[in-house]
Amino acid sequence: MICLGIEGTAEKTGVGVVDSDGNILSLVGKQLFPEKGGIHPREAAEHHAKWIPKLISDACDEAKLGLDEIDLVSFSKGPGLGPGLRTTATAARSLSLSINKPIIGVNHCIGHIEIGKLDTSANDPVSLYVSGGNSQIIAYEYGRYRVFGETLDIAIGNALDQFGRETGLGHPGGPVVEKLAKNGSYIDLPYTVKGMDLSFSGLMSAAIRKYKEGIDIEDICYSFQETAFSMLVEVTERALSHTKKDEVLLCGGVAANKRLREMLDGMAEDHFAKFYMPKMEYCGDNGAMIAWLGILMNNSYGPDKIDETRVIQRFR
Ligand code: KG4
Description:
Layout: E1 2-7, E2 12-19, E3 24-31, H1 41-63, E4 72-78, H2 82-99, E5 103-107, H3 108-119, E6 126-130, E7 135-141, E8 144-150, H4 156-166, H5 173-181, E9 193-194, E10 197-198, H6 201-212, H7 217-243, E11 247-251, H8 258-270, E12 274-276, H9 280-283, H10 287-301, H11 308-315
Parallel strand pairs: 1-4, 4-5, 6-11, 11-12
Antiparallel strand pairs: 1-2, 2-3, 6-7, 7-8, 9-10
Subcellular location: Cytoplasm
Protein name: Probable bifunctional tRNA threonylcarbamoyladenosine biosynthesis protein
Enzyme class: transferase
């Protein structure tokens, strides 16, 4: 079976083609870079609408396949920004109807984990999924994926990006903060773990406040990272010890951060667990993870049932 997957939960849209043996036949994408501020949901949706048709055709070309050779269409049905999700679902439905092939909507976060498992030899990990929109600690237990802990407010990537914008470091903030953190020293910032959940908004506001007070930016960046990543590692460690698993998987765009990898890897080692991370091209949002999860979900539950007439009427 060959599945074409369409991703569009945030500012990136991507299309991937994957076969049922887990071969990634193509992976193409386009990212929207906001001129100022963060991601505007309507602008992200317009970006997706503009690029998805070309990306579908590029993905087929790269896979050396015609549209008639696609057996299944999958799309990210959430979580994400509403307008972009609607655009992505509409594109997937249009494609599915026009090539007369089944469709399946899949969970974006689980897509990150499943492509992570496919690209590494991880089998049953506790996963730390950290991106611009999500911060979750997830593991498979008792026949389903369970969220063991997550942010109560903003995601870690969003906190780094907002901090970057407020302090003139630019967008996205994560990579610049990582660079500046290399020469910093520790200053006290709020550490907020509540039960198994996390909060990053107080930490971000305090970091911005310190910047306005004239504290050295390198010290703030270093302390921001140390504090936020310790919080994430603490909850992942607790999930690991609760589930008694022996694998830890890091995924999502913030996985690019070397300090986070080092801290998580160290924690895993302390628990005799193996640390895994997929290649960076599979860490950020991409269409291949949606296609691969489409195949897995279809194998387990079959495709979604769509009332075709209703869909056509609604989008005409
Ligand atoms: O998964 P992703 O590519 O897409 C979205 O969630 O939209 O993640 C993007 C996030 C941004 O918040 C960005 O600041 C963060 O990943 N990021 C980093 C680094 N590189 C990207 N955060 C920390 N350190 C980095 N080196």
